[in-house]
Design brief:
Elements lengths: L3 E4 L22 E6 L5 H14 L8 E5 L2 H23 L4 E2 L7 E4 L1 H12 L6 E3 H11 L11 E2 L2 H17 L7 H10 L4 H11 L5 E3 L5 H25 L5 H7 L8 H15 L6 H10 L3 H4 L21 H19 L10 H28 L1 E2 L1 H12 L13 H9 L2 E4 L7 H12 L5 E6 L13 H12 L4 E6 L1 E2 L4 H11 L17 E2 L5 E3 L8 E6 L3 E2 L2 H9 L7 H9 L4 E2 L2 H12 L1 H6 L1 H8 L5 H20 L3 E3 L7 E2 L5 E5 L2 H14 L3 E4 L8 H14 L4 H9 L10 H7 L2 H14 L3 H12 L1 H8 L3 H21 L3 H12 L7 H4 E3 L7 E5 L8 E6 L12 E4 L5 E4 L7 H19 L2 E10 L1 E2 L2 E5 L7 H20 L13 E5 L26 H11 L10 H4 L46 H4 L33 H13 L2 H5 L4 H6 L1 H13 L7 H13 L1 E3 L5 E3 L6 E10 L12 H8 ...
Parallel strand pairs: 1-4, 2-11, 2-12, 3-6, 3-10, 7-9, 8-27, 10-11, 13-14, 16-28, 16-31, 21-24, 21-25, 22-24, 25-28, 37-38
Antiparallel strand pairs: 1-5, 15-19, 17-18, 19-20, 22-23, 26-27, 29-30, 32-33, 34-36, 35-36, 36-37, 38-39
């Protein structure tokens, strides 16, 4: 056969002007390849394998290939198989060349080599390509004898072992009184809230981690022994003082007479009082004394801050002036304070005692728990995921490390006999244990090759245990050998030449890659000049900056603070001028200074220029982030509209840029949620790669506990676990008494079990939320919107799985358990939320997720916020040892440096995903205040990026101002534009920013979503808005269900009216599941009256006062449903009813609701005006507050409640006795075993106060305040009272102060009057009035509000 030639193309094998050295397989046995982003690392790896197979004749089965993800192994396996098949087919067809021809080094495929490749292709499945864990797992299974393991060793999940064993461990080793850990455990349970699940999760996370735990406290018992002597000494001194001076404590008097600093005096005296009180409590056990003394912060007393000048009436300048007896007392306390300090027991706040107890308990029980788990696994013959690496490392570590050549272990001999070469890809993601394995298996063998491929600039998985320091140590060890070689790939085959040049300039800034030493950045060259992005826009170069503009505002609150401030930098005349300019809002430095100058004069303005700019700069990042998101959305639409052409350098012709070729990267999922909301409003299709973790949240674990209790309601321990969750919120110390004293709790579980057996999972989930009230409690009481979102999404996911797969509840619970343990994956759409097919969607993903991907156009969004403080910090000390700090004061400096370096590496990954264009946000510095930028951010990705962009932006501005000559895009690949949007005030965006239509090439996603909602259950959303939380589960299979208190006055069930005497068996668990037919008959009579409205003068843009919408039930139902289903945030950001109703998604939703209620489309415009003006009109919320309903934060539609009825034998009397008689006769009200079941149209929060709202669609003669008050008091007074009392109970406002602080008031909004006048009746009864309502409405046996504790 003729020879087939293949040109070697990789820089590792072919010398070029850019690569001076190449790989020589014959003598390079220890090789480190550093491959920057986009330099063709996978292709180079393929060629390395071919070089070893074709030149060194090493069988592929002898070349071990290891990477770090399953996806990467599959890609590598596919590419190698395809390459081999192409070679074999080309050789068999008699070709002379495969691929490009050239004069450089090439491979020659003769007959023997062809047979070798055909044999490798036939047995390709045996080619060893693994992840690191897959490789170790294979070693354990195949070499059990060498690993000293059982041959039938099984892999298990540590989490399951912990679940089974942790509580047994606590009961047997920790809780018994004789246990050395018992005193500390008791303190943890009593003083640190004793959350065993949190403790279990933290221990589980720490068990596999390697590193030194600090602080290294002695055991608690030893600490108590050391504490005993100085404590007794202080007690003795205190007793002596008290006996010598009866009455007030002498130390109290001494400190009162000491010249304390005014700012510190309160804290010092508070600490002293706690210490004195503690010393006066001899009955406390020593460990409680230890804890309370530590919590009192004795250092405040031993080192008090004193004023420099003696104040009148003071006697002592410092503790040195105290009498001898008081000095002795202070000396004894100082000895205890030194004891605490030496043992690193210092608190910044008294609340940190909880963290100390948890950290100490972890330090004590982690070693014995590890030993117990290891022993249990040994006895059961099992191992877990982390054990794989540990077992292999232990069995490749030579027992004797003396001598020049370490003796190989049996496992090492076995592995070396099977493999000749090991190539490890993505080695920057390694950890010390993984490096130890490969070092002992291959590096320490003179006859084996080890090749490491990676890029330390892309080491971004420190939170998973990967350590860039390990990579650097491994590189140094590799290069210390004589047969070592360090190679690098310096040609970028991903990006355009302009983009590469721009990134070279950014990354060569000295601020990049300073830490740790040894990373650095080397310039890369363009490897494929054919890659090109063609754009007709003149001001869009390879790297485009979106400049966030400053915001200056002179507000009343800020002026008042300045006037009260002692160090006010502005003179009186400037303050007078600033007060005249109150309310000024400017979006540039020049405009702001001009505005101030008009009031104060140019001279004084210039004098205080820098102080003015710094004082009135609005640095909050929320508004600029939203503006940036809007700008990105507009730019995406423009890119698609302009028909930008993309040529990837592989095909012969360019193609129009598509949606899926655009990617927006962000640091946190919450930033992606901001983007997705904006994209949805603009009608842009997007695919949102959500971070995994929904099923690893606390909510998932608590739902699992609750559903396990339902499935196994006969097992008390399961029910105990459920009662401890937030669904019931019963404290641990009250659990036993609650199970005995509250038998209704057991009835809940029996009822839910019955629903589960009948297959009514939707009803079950709804009833769980209804009875536990966890959603409302988390949203309004705990302020946990994320928790509510997680609960909602998990229950919806389970309901969907049950319905689609026909699962029983027990099977669904097992599925959830596996998801929590990550033994199974959720469906793709549960991790990737889509509004359309991925092929036609802009990609939204985190920077971490994007690693390994590339896109023609990339936007960087977010990264302006840092990570929240952590309880545990992991970092390295000066010797490189891994440290895990469980407790300490402040954030370790070493951790801050490592976190900053990792953020830089994360940014490098993000910026190098772009192939054609990169969009970067930019925040400039404040003139005259170089340390202040226009937006506040700290310890985040953008802080690492901004300094390297300053010089580039300065050059852009100098070119635009003509200060330096303009440079071409080839010379200077940067451009910028300013983010200049209309004010994002409560009026929303101006019309011009909403009228840019979506191109036909973009699917009308809002219409698709609207159609989907009309026939399917609500899909999962990127972020639940609070107003959609309650009641979403009611929509799973019954269509749209809606309720309100006022509508229940006409409710009928199957043509019958219920009353107190017709009640079925007592039940508090009934729920409202009416059909749409029921719904049609639920409007109030007085809302259906048709009266000619009185003409009024409008404040907002008026509409015709001649009503088109008819009166009646259908109109009320229609308007209520509109107000429940629309997106308030979307409406807020429009400037007129027309702009809002013309949005495709809104128009489709309104049209569908009109059709559902048998209205023609001619009513769409008027109904849109009613709703828009209602939500946009600024209404008074009492005497001191006002707001637009669309801008209110937390909202719950149709909030249900139960209200206790008075005894039917003793009905009360009330104004409007006819109404009361109707009510207690049971006409139209849903009555349930002594409870009235109702729901409130809308509950919302504004400025930390909760308000109730009821929509009214009445046709009235006029809508002035007197008329509205008359209507409300005549028809709705009883409703108002019940609303009020039910809400006060729900919010647990048991005294007047709590009521005044938390409750805002009740609003009745008459929709038909809102476009023209403020048609709102507002009422906020006093506490005294509320008590009067209570006595009138409730039966005498009901407890009064102050007495209610649950």
């Amino acid at each position: 056969m003729s020879l087939l030639r293949l040109l070697k193309q990789s820089d590792l094998l072919q010398k070029s002007s850019d690569s001076k050295d190449i790989f020589h397989a014959s003598h390079d046995h220890s090789v480190v390849v550093e491959a920057s982003a986009g330099t063709g690392k996978t292709f180079a790896l393929e060629e390395l394998v071919l070089e070893l197979a074709l030149v060194e004749r090493i069988p592929l089965q002898k070349i071990l290939l290891v990477t770090f993800t399953e996806k990467a192994t599959q890609e590598l396996r596919t590419r190698l198989r395809t390459r081999l098949r192409e070679i074999v087919e080309a050789a068999q067809s008699g070709k002379d060349w495969l691929g490009p021809e050239g004069t450089g080094s090439c491979w020659e495929i003769d007959a023997p080599r062809l047979e070798q490749l055909k044999a490798a292709l036939m047995d390709f499945d045996a080619v060893p390509i693994y992840t690191i864990h897959g490789f170790c797992n294979r070693l354990i299974r195949e070499f059990a004898f060498e690993n000293r393991l059982l041959f039938n060793q099984q892999q298990v999940d540590t989490r399951q072992l912990m679940e089974d064993h942790f509580r047994i461990f606590l009961r047997s080793k920790v809780l018994p009184p004789k246990s050395t850990h018992s005193p500390l455990m008791n303190l943890y349970l009593v003083h640190a809230e004793g959350n065993l699940e949190t403790l279990q999760r933290e221990l589980l996370r720490l068990i596999p981690q390697q590193g030194k735990l600090i602080p290294q406290w002695p055991s608690f018992l030893k600490m108590m022994q050391s504490f005993h002597t100085p404590w007794k000494k202080l007690c003795h001194e205190d007793q002596s003082l008290r006996s010598s001076q009866p009455g007030s404590h002498p130390m109290r008097e001494a400190f009162w007479l000491m010249n304390l600093n005014g700012n510190s005096e309160k804290g010092i005296l508070s600490s002293l009082e706690r210490i004195i009180e503690l010393l006066g409590s001899p009955e406390l056990p020593p460990e409680e004394c230890f804890l309370h003394l530590l919590q009192s912060q004795p250092e405040k007393v031993t080192r008090p801050k004193c004023a420099k000048q003696m104040k009148s009436g003071k006697q002592y300048a410092s503790p040195d002036d105290f009498p001898d007896a008081q000095k002795d007392w202070m000396a004894a306390l100082e000895e205890l304070e030194r004891f605490f300090t030496e043992n690193e027991l210092v608190l910044e706040k008294p609340e940190q005692i909880k963290k100390i107890l948890k950290a100490w308990l972890i330090l004590e029980i982690l070693p014995p728990l590890r030993s117990e788990l290891e022993q249990m696994k040994l006895e059961k013959g099992v191992y877990d995921f982390d054990d794989m690496l540990r077992i292999v490392e232990e069995n490749v570590q030579p027992a004797n490390s003396n001598g020049s050549e370490n003796p190989a272990t049996p496992l090492t001999h076995a592995v070396r006999s099977q493999y000749e070469t090991a190539i490890v890809d993505e080695f920057q993601d390694t950890d010390p244990r993984q490096w130890s394995i490969f070092k002992n298996l291959f590096l320490k063998s003179a006859s084996h090759r080890l090749m490491l491929i990676g890029d330390p600039k892309q080491a971004i998985y420190g939170f998973r245990g990967a350590e860039v320091l390990t990579y650097l140590e491994a590189r140094d060890s590799m290069l210390s050998r004589k047969d070592a070689k360090r190679l690098s790939l310096k040609r970028n085959f991903r990006s355009t030449a302009g983009l590469i040049n721009g990134l070279n300039r950014i990354f060569q800034n000295p601020n990049w890659f300073e830490s740790p030493k040894g990373i650095g950045y080397s310039q890369v060259m363009c490897g494929n000049p054919e890659i090109l992005l063609e754009d007709s826009h003149e001001n869009r170069r390879a790297i485009h900056f979106l400049e966030i503009q400053p915001h200056f505002r002179i507000g009343r609150t800020q002026l008042q603070k300045l006037e009260r401030k002692k160090s006010n930098p502005f003179p009186k005349e400037m303050m007078i001028a600033l007060n005249r300019a109150e309310g000024t809002d400017c979006r540039s430095e020049d405009d702001f200074l001009k505005t101030v100058s008009r009031e104060a004069g140019p001279e004084i303005t210039g004098q205080f220029r820098n102080e003015l700019l710094k004082t009135f700069l609005q640095t909050n990042r929320r508004k600029p982030e939203r503006e940036l998101a809007e700008t990105i959305a507009e730019e995406v639409k423009d890119l698609l509209k302009r028909k930008v052409l993309w040529h990837d350098g592989k095909e012969n012709q360019s193609s129009t840029l598509k949606e899926h070729q655009i990617c927006v990267l962000f640091r946190k999922t919450s930033e992606g949620e901001i983007l997705s909301k904006v994209f949805r409003r603009h009608g842009i299709a997007y695919a949102f790669y959500k971070q995994r973790g929904l099923f690893q949240t606390r909510e998932a674990h608590e739902i699992l506990d609750l559903l396990n209790a339902v499935v196994h309601e006969d097992q008390p321990q399961r029910i105990r676990m459920a009662l401890l969750s937030r669904f019931f919120g019963i404290p641990l110390h009250k659990l036993d008494s609650a199970m005995i004293s509250k038998p209704q709790l057991m009835l809940h579980f029996r009822r839910w079990r019955s629903m589960a057996k009948e297959g009514e999972s939707g009803r079950l989930f709804h009833d769980i939320l209804e009875q536990t009230r966890v959603m409302e409690r988390e949203l309004f009481v705990s302020s946990s919107e994320r928790g509510v979102t997680n609960i909602s999404q998990i229950l919806e996911y389970l309901q969907q799985r049950i319905r689609e797969n026909g699962l029983s509840l027990a099977e669904a619970v097992r599925h959830l358990q596996k998801l929590i343990k990550e033994q199974e994956s959720a469906e793709e759409n549960d991790d990737l939320l889509r509004l359309e097919s991925e092929k036609k969607a802009v990609q939204l993903m985190t920077m971490h997720t994007s690693k390994g991907l590339e896109f023609p156009v990339v936007f960087i969004f977010g990264g302006f916020s840092g990570d929240p403080p952590s309880d545990h910090y992991r970092y390295h000390d000066e010797n490189g040892q891994s440290i895990i700090r469980l407790f300490g004061i402040g954030t370790p400096e070493a951790y801050l440096q490592e976190a900053s370096a990792e953020r830089q590496r994360l940014l490098y990954v993000a910026l190098t995903r772009a192939a054609g264009r990169l969009y970067l946000p930019y925040v400039n510095v404040l003139s005259g205040n170089e340390s202040t930028r226009w937006m506040k951010f700290d310890k985040c990705c953008q802080k690492e990026l901004m300094p390297s962009l300053d010089s580039v932006l300065e050059e852009i501005h100098q070119q635009s101002e003509g200060k330096i000559p303009l440079r071409t895009a080839d010379e200077f690949p940067f451009s910028s534009s300013r983010i200049i949007l209309s004010e994002m005030s409560n009026e929303g965006f101006h019309q011009e920013h909403l009228e840019n239509p979506v191109q036909d090439s973009i699917p009308n996603l809002e219409v698709e979503l609207a159609n989907l909602l009309s026939r399917n259950p609500l899909p999962l959303k990127e972020k639940e808005t609070p107003e959609n939380f309650i009641g979403r589960l009611k929509k799973n299979s019954r269509g749209f269900v809606v309720t309100s208190f006022s509508r229940m006055q006409q409710e009928r069930e199957k043509g019958k009216t219920r009353n107190l005497n017709e009640l079925s068996k007592p039940s508090f668990l009934d729920f409202d599941a009416r059909s749409e037919e029921d719904f049609e008959e639920t409007r109030e009579p007085d809302e259906t009256e048709s009266m000619k409205p009185e003409s009024t003068t409008g404040v907002l843009e008026p509409i015709s006062t001649e009503a088109k919408l008819p009166g009646g039930v259908a109109t009320g139902n229609f308007l209520h449903e509109m107000l429940e289903r629309i997106d308030y945030d979307q409406l807020l950001e429009t400037s007129s009813p027309e702009a809002w109703s013309e949005l495709s998604g809104v128009n489709a939703l309104l049209a569908r609701i009109l059709e559902k209620h048998s209205f023609s489309e001619e009513f769409l415009s008027e109904s849109a005006h009613l709703v828009w003006h209602t939500l946009q009109r600024k209404i008074r919320l009492g005497e001191d507050s006002s707001a637009r309903l669309a801008e209110t934060g937390k909202r719950i539609h149709e909030m249900k409640f139960y209200f206790p009825l008075p005894d039917s034998k003793n009905p009360f009397t009330l104004l409007g006795t006819e109404d009361s008689k109707k009510l207690w006769n049971g006409e139209g009200w849903r009555v349930k075993s002594g409870f009235l079941n109702g729901s409130i149209d809308l509950v919302f929060e504004w400025k930390n106060r909760v308000y109730l709202l009821d929509w009214k669609s009445n046709l009235l003669e006029n809508y002035n305040k007197e008329k509205l008050t008359e209507v409300v008091h005549e028809h709705y007074l009883m409703q108002l009272q019940i609303y009020l009392l039910a809400t006060v109970r729900w919010l647990r406002l048991f005294d007047e102060d709590a009521y005044n602080q938390r409750f805002g008031g009740i609003l009745y909004i008459f929709l038909r009057g809102m476009p023209n006048v403020d048609a709102v009746h507002f009422e906020r009864p006093s506490w005294r009035k509320l008590k009067q309502y209570e006595s009138e409405l409730e039966k005498p046996t009901q407890p009064r509000l102050p007495a209610m504790s649950a």
